[in-house]
UniProtKB/TrEMBL annotation:
Keywords: Hydrolase, Lipid degradation, Lipid metabolism. A motif (GXSXG) lies at residues 40-44. The active site is at S42, D174. This is PNPLA domain-containing protein. The keyword Lipid metabolism applies. InterPro entries: Acyl_Trfase/lysoPLipase (IPR016035), PNPLA_dom (IPR002641). Residues 4-187 form the PNPLA domain.
């Protein structure tokens, strides 16, 4: 029983898309035929949803690489006002309409039921103060494009997505605020769906970053100064914690492909041509650095 996990990172989603294209090339199988459950947060949600969309418009990993290459600049297109200091006081940095246009282009009217593999997408409901999981085996009538708008609604980047689900009003934001790596969430759902099966779990990152904080700097932080560093610490430690937990629970059946970014920008909205090329370079380096893990996965699959 195989599970695939993808997590957030904006335009850096091009990295796992390229790695998955390599796996498809090696196995000669579409990703949806390899994994029984696919989970994603934010940009990772777009990738897994595209890979397991089950009608004639199902996408290959290479198709999703092209999505980032062709439409990344459009998704993260910002007006002068949104770039100005005024955006710190009112409104999101990018228009949700651009994101919705691309999601409609790729997913149309397809629903959560229109998938070839079990699909799990994470989001957080700020209206009801609770996490919310879009599950293809439960929320079958919800449109994929709406679920993806919710899981990609990163605070300050895009406005929240308002949805009425089972008579409940929900205001949903990016699931990365609590599950930037959705591996543990997927493992828990998988144990419920397939209680008697052995689990092989693949988790692909979007590139690690060095967010070290020097003591001399930290002791100068006030309430405002701590905001960004603290968020970075919380996200990074959350990822590491999930890795530790799953390594203890399923040991060598947990395959984690991730490397520190060496040349690419760490920013999730850097959509310059130079940045795109650097991300492609990072993806190829990650494939090279993780040859043994990829071989191990392909051996499990075969």
């Amino acid at each position: 029983m195989g599970y695939l996990l993808q997590y957030g990172g904006g335009i850096r989603g091009i990295i796992p898309a390229i790695i998955l294209a390599e796996i498809e090339s090696r196995t000669k199988k579409p990703i949806s035929q390899i994994f029984d459950l696919m989970a994603g947060t934010s940009t990772g949600g777009i990738i897994v949803a595209g890979l397991c969309k089950s009608n004639k418009l199902q996408y290959s990993a290479n198709d999703l690489v092209e999505l980032y290459q062709e439409y990344g600049a459009y998704i993260f297109q910002s007006s002068f006002w949104r770039k100005s200091i005024a955006s710190w006081l009112s409104g999101s940095q990018y228009s949700y309409r651009n994101m919705e246009f691309i999601l409609n282009k790729y997913f149309g009217e397809s629903t959560m039921a229109d998938v070839a593999s079990n699909l799990l997408l994470t989001s957080y409901d700020i209206h009801n103060s609770c996490e919310f999981f879009f599950k293809s085996w439960k929320e079958k009538n919800i449109k994929l494009k709406d679920a993806l708008r919710a899981t990609t609604a990163a605070p300050t980047y895009f406005t929240p997505k308002r949805l009425k689900i089972s008579q409940t009003e929900r205001v949903l934001i990016d699931g990365g605020v609590f599950a930037n790596n959705p591996a543990a969430c997927a493992y828990a759902s998988g144990k419920r769906l397939f209680p008697n099966d052995e689990i092989i779990l693949l988790s692909i990152g979007t590139g690690g970053t060095d967010r070290s904080i020097k003591y001399a700097n930290s002791r100068k932080f006030g309430k405002i100064g701590w905001i960004k560093p603290l968020l970075n610490v919380m996200f990074a430690s959350g990822l590491d914690c999930v890795d530790y937990q799953l390594e203890q629970v399923i040991d060598d059946k947990y395959i984690r492909i991730q490397s520190q970014l060496k040349v690419a920008s760490t920013e999730m909205d850097n959509i310059t041509l130079k940045s795109i090329k650097s991300l492609q370079q990072e993806a190829n380096s990650m494939i090279e650095d993780n040859q043994k893990l990829i071989d191990k996965l392909c051996d499990f699959i075969s």
